[in-house]
Amino acid sequence: MYTQLEQRGMPEPPVNISTLQKMKQRGEPIACLTAYDASYAVLVDAAGADLVLVGDSLGMVIQGHDTTVPVTVDDIIYHCRTVARGVRRAFLVADMPFMSYTEPGMALDNAVRLMQEGGAMMVKLEGGDDQVEIVAHLARHDIPVCAHLGLKPQSVHKIGGFKVQGREPDKAKAMLQSAQRLQDAGADIVLLECVPNEAGKMITEALQVPVIGIGAGPYVDGQILVLYDILDITQGRTPKFVRNFQAGCDSPLLAVQSYVRAVKEGDYPAPEHCFS
Ligand code: KIV
Question: What per-residue confidence (pLDDT) applies to 81?
Answer without folding.
Answer: 98
